[in-house]
């Protein structure tokens, strides 16, 4: 009798039972039933926390062919492959034929009868998935802490696996006569964490030979951001692969396959290349390496079920159905008070400038909620100009934001970075994969552009292309991926925050000049105190929840207010046609929307509209003031 | 019949009862009929085709029966004729008349069809028939014989195909391959004649023709290309050498079918397509080096020098263990230079960007090209590939018990057809671009039948951009374009059919958005910004290909948007140098290039949609268009429509604008969908109209056009100015044609002309109105100066002359003083520019010269 957790430990047994049962009754649709079974099981209370996650459990602690989950972003889509859905094996001794199911498996059983008439060819799709880029450490930790999976390294298995992988890695080294160029180390606050992170996972590895982690860096795992870590995974999708899109974030539940035979096959190929065999020459060595990397580095995951993630905030329940909206509405009441708290915190951080703090909140909860043909609606790119350049103020600011949002990325716009970094993903036709770039980000990632790092010098071709890409990203919320013969447009939803001394060279929806109210005599000390000031843990969590919830709320404008807004606009134009343009109205509507949401109001009220207008008026007057002072371009 | 004896030990997995192969029918899932992979590798039959080396020994005895005889050849090195799929030779024997042509011409192997042509025929009545000789018995036996695993009967199939070749006539053909052929004669017979003249032994056959001729034959061709195509080869060679017995070909003719409608899109390939004939379109992204592939291995016994040949079977050679002559074991060695190799090339093809769903990455497929198809395509080419889709299981390794349960798939190419090559020839390039389903055409036609289709479509265009109805209508007409006319016989070359539009106006009036929208809407659109583009970026540049080290021409935005729309933002910011290349493109629609030894003329039949900002950042209503945007009038006159996008300042407009914007922010997605036409429908509508509708002027409409033109000239002449030039008439015609296309009408009628006139007038009213007089004055666009301005200049010049004459005998005057004097005299203000112009006018009359600050009188 199977125990409660058997479906986690050995899901293939469940599937095979169903397959066997279906053989007697054709058209039973056992495949759908199998998927349904796992879905049902996962729906049970807390069931999904029992499933170990590839994100936080080292690979060699996981049992092969067990059910695991993986929180990831689809980085690349490979070509569909045909596999033996059903095949027949012949026992060499008894000559007995058995029908077997090839679904959810990479490797067949012994003695496949290739000439069997019962072979059924089926199709599946492979996605190359990476952990969500820029996911902040508090998110990772929190997810790991909530997991209730029993991960006991199986003693009988681990040593052999380790040995295997060690050998492979050695071989990989040999193959890698030309080690892939390591990405430019990133001079951000993130970079120090890179090594630390590797150690993190190693700490848990009690018996891992040190060689394996070192050599793994030789293979380019194609993470969008430099300095990322974590497993990447080849996810095999069996149905409805058309509904997944590149850069979707998913939680995949699937069967882990790390069979060493996979790597062995690859090695075999490597050794015998050059021999007359049509299947051999079909792929280049590079393509081989990318499409079938050793399973110890890039495990295969056979997808049973995938839930698209609305957000990756561990403090919120997974929003999937109507019952979760109850959670959202329950938190509405508190929002105003949390907002006030956040406002005072940001005011403090922004040197006492409440207006900038206000706009920063609006920015952090903005999201592209819809697109009208080419026009993305709801984006709110903020340009905080007038930031003090002293002593890494901007980096501190980033660290604070990092503590609050689930995923973020810091991009210092230094000449070096702009000229050498690859921001736009590019198709590598030799290896037949999409080489990722820093702009391949999951939705609602906060991209922090530090323009104070700008220096004098010349942008080369790459630099110009990168700046153009950033401009396109901000204006249209899209990135044109480079497919060498043509470009392909991928819509995105990235919150871009630009900090600069003067007006940014990039376009932005809204520019606020920071007026420091307090001029601390010692900036170092002041900044230090902010850091110490960092909120108590529960407090911090409240803020995190607040920011994520505000983004998920629905919003509407009543008929009555539509009318009022229209009247307002007409009146303003009547007095002075230059005072407000269509573009200003666009911005005003976005500000009003975000302001309402930030206070937990799901529809626009007259009050909010006036407040939004007031905010905008304050901002523009400050801009004019600033223009007069500096004599800068408007 | 022969199979049990001639292929002992052969394992036939697909059906246990070989005598009833047709019972499974052709519809059985291909995944269950892996003919290609099912046989075990042990037994290999010798080559059915005569290898080129054998031709040198004509005395080689050949089996005379077409269908395999029950007795097996004794001599092992003799060509086994048991295959029914022999090329030409045996059948010509049957007829008994020796034909030098057929026999002297070596058949070439078809590695594209694989080496699986060994499938024996099966007699449905399971009675061994001796189908020797005679055509009569062939017909008799043919009824019952089918190739194993298929329902193909060689005799019938051959006969059908010959009939097809002899009879097929396609009077409506418009393919460029068929140009120069008489469409009312059997098409393929003419092609055969061509082969006999040119000597290129390849016959391309359009599958659609086969389908329209004989659907059953077409089905067989699609389902069993491996068997049917060699049969076709055989048929065509028989026919050919019968017709042209004296012609000498290098090889026997090979049939290359193309345009199989099985699959159009790489994405829709699935296991059902395995081993079928398919056509996919895509872009070549990589080609490999040439791979010599062994077709036949030559073994020689080291003991007795006895030689034997072994055909390669799926990439492997079964080395004979025992010499059949002296029975020595393991004494045979491979002799490389006597083995037969064929050329092979791996080509990677990627889905064309148009076929891809949004948000996914393109798929790639491996294609193998064989023999003369090698190096036919280059990376970057858009091609249609016809071939056989294959799936090969991962190699079974003897040392390994389990295998990766994945098949490798590829396509063996039979025919390549470059799609962009045709664009250069310029004949009806859009004919096969997009195919519409019946339903879709029906929907589109329904839509076209509605009386307000024009308004509907224009409001569906960029719904997020508010108002500017006329501008949207103009752009809509641009999307449809006029009818392409060819006057090359009379020496004027092609008439421009594309409508060029310039939008100018205040910043922030969503010009860029409109451009972005258009760019996203049309399949072949390019978007550039004037600031960031250089002349070469727009036209073409020459670079050295890093791989081939050849000089290659890389085309720029204008060439890439051939047959599309090139959107140029910030047109005014463009350097003069760059702008000058547009002159040729915007009227002649070609691009002439002479650089790095490459001299050529490329087609650039693109419509230009440009946006420009006024020089003073805000539109100055007191100035003319030219003065506002500072563009050369030579360029401006090439735009059919110039629209001003100004921020109108009136309350009603503001209210509507506000309502529009607010609704943008609160309406849900579905509501928006309901309100406007889907972008996909619009796109299809335009594509359909562009492809299938080519309106011609009706008598009535041309009369109206003439009247309109005369009227336009008259309006001007009344005040002494010209308000229309032939270019304007051409614009009117284009616009009227485009409007007729919107209505799916083959005739340009009066309403089309009326709308064209209205739109043209609207655009003129906006852009060519003289701010000083308020009249429409086309000379602003054609000469850069309004007539009143010119008149004024003349007046000032005359006044100046009078003044100088009044002063009398002063040969030299101070410039500044003269200006002051004139200012004092004149009642209207005289600017320095005006004064300068007046001086220049007088200098042109040779009345005076200006040197520095002094003015000297001449004469």
From TrEMBL, chain B:
GO terms for molecular function: ATP binding; ATP hydrolysis activity; chromatin binding; single-stranded DNA binding; single-stranded DNA helicase activity. Keywords: ATP-binding, Cell cycle, DNA replication, DNA-binding, Helicase, Hydrolase, Nucleotide-binding, Nucleus. PROSITE patterns: MCM_1, MCM_2. Pfam families: MCM (PF00493), MCM_lid (PF17855), MCM_N (PF14551), MCM_OB (PF17207), WHD_MCM4 (PF21128). Residues 1-137 are annotated as: Disordered. Signal peptide: none annotated. Residues 126-137 have a biased composition (Low complexity). SUPFAM superfamilies: Nucleic acid-binding proteins, P-loop containing nucleoside triphosphate hydrolases. Transmembrane segments: none annotated. It is found in: Nucleus. Residues 453-661 form the MCM C-terminal AAA(+) ATPase domain. It catalyses: ATP + H2O = ADP + phosphate + H(+). Its EC number is 3.6.4.12. The keyword DNA-binding applies. GO terms for cellular component: MCM complex; nucleus. Residues 59-76 have a biased composition (Polar residues). Component of the MCM2-7 complex. Acts as component of the MCM2-7 complex (MCM complex) which is the replicative helicase essential for 'once per cell cycle' DNA replication initiation and elongation in eukaryotic cells. The active ATPase sites in the MCM2-7 ring are formed through the interaction surfaces of two neighboring subunits such that a critical structure of a conserved arginine finger motif is provided in trans relative to the ATP-binding site of the Walker A box of the adjacent subunit. The six ATPase active sites, however, are likely to contribute differentially to the complex helicase activity. This is DNA replication licensing factor MCM4. The lineage of its organism: Eukaryota, Metazoa, Chordata, Craniata, Vertebrata.
